[in-house]
Amino acid sequence: MPTKPPFSVDVSISSTFYTPAAIRDEYYTPYSPTTDTSRFLQNDLSVECLNRIHKYLWLAGRPMPPRPLNYQTATSRQIVPDERIDMHMVWEPSRRIHLKPLPRYLLSHQFWKSYLICKEPCPCRSNYIYCQTEGGDGVCQQKHLYQCGLGLLYSYIALIERESDFAIAQDQHLIPHNVTWETWVRLVKELLENGATNPENVNARYLFGELRLSRLNKIYMFRYGSILRGYHFTYQTYTELFYDYLTPLTATIVYVALALTAMQVGLATKLGRNVAFQNASYGFTVFSIIGPLIILLLVAILGIIQFINNLLATLHFKRERFAHYKLLSSHS
User: Fold this and answer.
1) Segment (H or E) for 81
2) Which residue ranges does UniProt annotate as crossing the membrane (predicted)?
3) What's the first-to-final CA gap in the chain, in angstroms?
4) Which of the residue ranges 81-85, 219-223, 321-325 would you say has the lowest mean pLDDT?
5) Strand 90-91 vs strand 211-212: parallel, antiparallel, or unpaired?
6) Do 109 and 13 meet the contact criterion of CB atoms below 8 Å apart?
7) Confidence class of residue 120 from pLDDT cuts 50, 70 and 90?
C-alpha cells in the first residue's frame, strides 16, 4: 500500500470546499458529507457493482484506458456528466457516454493524506496484505478507497491528453473551473511518475475503459438472474420499454411478409407440386400467424411483471420512508 499521496503538495489544487454541499443517505435524506467522510467516500468512489463481475468485463469493453474526449466527440458520442461512480465511462446504444466529474478532493494533497492513506498500524502500510475491517469482509477500507480514487484519476489522465480534451472537459463541467491547462500538465506528470498506471495501485475496474451498458445488463441478467433490471434499468416509462422490445418485432414482420409473398409465388409455379415445399409453406404460414401473437403476449407479461415489481418496490420504500420519518420525529 503506498504510504503517501500520488502527487506532491506543489501541484495540489486548493479549494475552499472539497466535498458536495449535501448528499443523501440510504433513506434519501440529505446530510452533510463532512459528518461522516468515510461513508461519503465509500458511496462516491466504490465500484463494487463492477468489481462483482470483473472477470466478465471483457465482454463489455476492452482492457485498455478510455479514449480521449476529442475521440468521444468525434465519434458522435454525447458526453453526460453523471455523479454515479458505477456509471462512469459507461455508454448506451443511444451513443451517450456517462462520465463522473472529477471531484475536487482528489486534486488535494492534504485530502489524500487525511482520508485516503492508511494510518499506522494498518498492515497494508508494512506488507501490502489485506487487513480485517469492521464489516468482516477482509478488505482494507483505506486501500480500497485509495485504489478507487487513483483509478478515477487514471481514467482522467487518459480522457484528457491534449489541450482540446481539456477544453471539452471544462465545457462539460468535468473538472473544477480553477484547474488550468498548465496545472493539469504538471499534475499528470507527477501522477505518471508515481505509479498511477501501475495495476496494483488502481482498482481492477479501471483496467477497462468504456463499457457498453447493454452488455453489462446482459452480464447481470445471466450471472445474477436480474432479468428485469440488469446492471442499470434504462427505461423511464413503460412506453420506452414496449418500444424497445417491439421494434425488433416490426422488422421481423416485414421479413415474414416478404417470405410469405415468395412462398405464394412459389406455390403458383412448379414448386407447388413439391410436397416438402408445400409442408414448409404450411408450417411457415401457421408460424407467421401464431409467432407474433406469442411474442406480443410475452412482452405484455413482461410489462405486467415489471409493473407489479415496481409497485411492490414503491410500497416497500414508502413503508421504510415513513418509518424513518417516525424515527426522526421520536428523536426530535
Assistant:
1) strand 78-81
2) 245-268, 280-308
3) 43
4) 321-325
5) parallel
6) no
7) low
Q: Where are the alpha helices (DSSP H) in the chain?
A: 37-45, 48-51, 69-74, 109-111, 124-127, 141-159, 163-171, 181-193, 213-224, 238-267, 275-331
Q: Which residue has the cell 412482452?
A: 299
Residue with cell 480485517: 132
Angle formed by the axes of helices 238-267 and 275-331, to 10°? Answer: 180
In which band, very low, low, confident or very high, does the pLDDT at 138 lie, cut at 50, 70 and 90? low
Model-wide pTM > 0.90: no
Measured torsion, CA atoms of residues 36, 37, 38, 44, in degrees rounded to the nearest 10: 120
Phi and psi, residue 174, nearest 5°: -90, -20
Give the pLDDT mean for 211-219. Answer: 91
C-alpha torsion sign, points 3, 109, 80, 72: negative
Report the half-sphere exposure of 317 (CA within 13 A, side-chain side).
10
Axis crossing angle, helix 37-45 with helix 141-159, rounded to the nearest 10: 50
DSSP code for 113 = I
